[in-house]
Write a structure and sequence with these properties.
With 125 residues, the protein is of the alpha+beta class. The protein has a single domain, classed as Arc Repressor Mutant, subunit A. It is 57% helix and 13% strand. The chain is built from five helices and five strands; from the N terminus they run ββαβααββαα. The strands form two sheets. It has a three-stranded antiparallel β-sheet. It has a two-stranded antiparallel sheet with strand order 1-2. Helix 1 crosses helix 5. The protein is globular. It starts with a strand and ends with a helix.
Length: 125
C-alpha cells in the first residue's frame, strides 16, 4: 500500500511494485529491458510489450497519485531509469517526502522478502 499526496492509501499491484523496486534500486541508472524482464518474469516467456505495459501503468499510477512524481525515462530499445526532477523538489523535501519514505519502506520489505526466499530455497537444496 502507498499513500497518495492526500494521505489516502492506494494499492499498488505486485507487478508495479516489483518494477518500482527494481528501478529504485538503480535510481539514476538505466536498467536494460532484458534485465527487467528477467527479474520480473524469471520463469515465464513474455514479450517486450509486457514490460512496456507495466512501465506505462506505473507512470500512470504515479502521475495520478502524486503532484511531483519521479520520472521514468526511456532509452529507446534499451531500458528505463527512474529519476527525480531537480525542478520538482529540493534535497530536504525529497528526504522528508512521504512518497520517498513509503518507497524506501517498500524497497526494504521487498528486499527482505527476496532474501527470505533465497534462504528458504538454499535450505531446501
Amino acid at each position: 500500500m502507498l499513500k497518495d499526496a492526500s494521505g489516502i492509501e492506494k494499492r499498488l499491484e505486485p507487478r508495479l511494485s516489483k518494477l518500482m523496486f527494481l528501478l529504485l534500486n538503480n535510481l539514476g541508472k538505466f536498467v536494460s529491458r532484458r534485465e527487467l524482464i528477467d527479474e520480473m518474469w524469471p520463469d515465464t516467456v513474455v514479450t517486450e510489450q509486457s514490460l512496456t505495459r507495466v512501465v506505462s501503468d506505473l507512470r500512470k499510477f504515479l502521475r495520478l497519485n502524486y503532484p511531483a512524481p519521479p520520472v521514468i525515462e526511456t532509452a529507446s530499445k534499451q531500458g528505463y531509469r527512474m529519476s527525480y526532477s531537480v525542478l520538482n523538489v529540493t534535497p530536504d523535501s525529497a528526504v522528508r517526502s512521504p512518497f520517498w519514505k513509503v518507497l524506501r519502506l517498500i524497497g526494504y520489505g521487498f528486499g527482505a522478502l527476496v532474501l527470505l526466499v533465497l534462504v528458504v530455497r538454499g535450505l531446501n537444496y
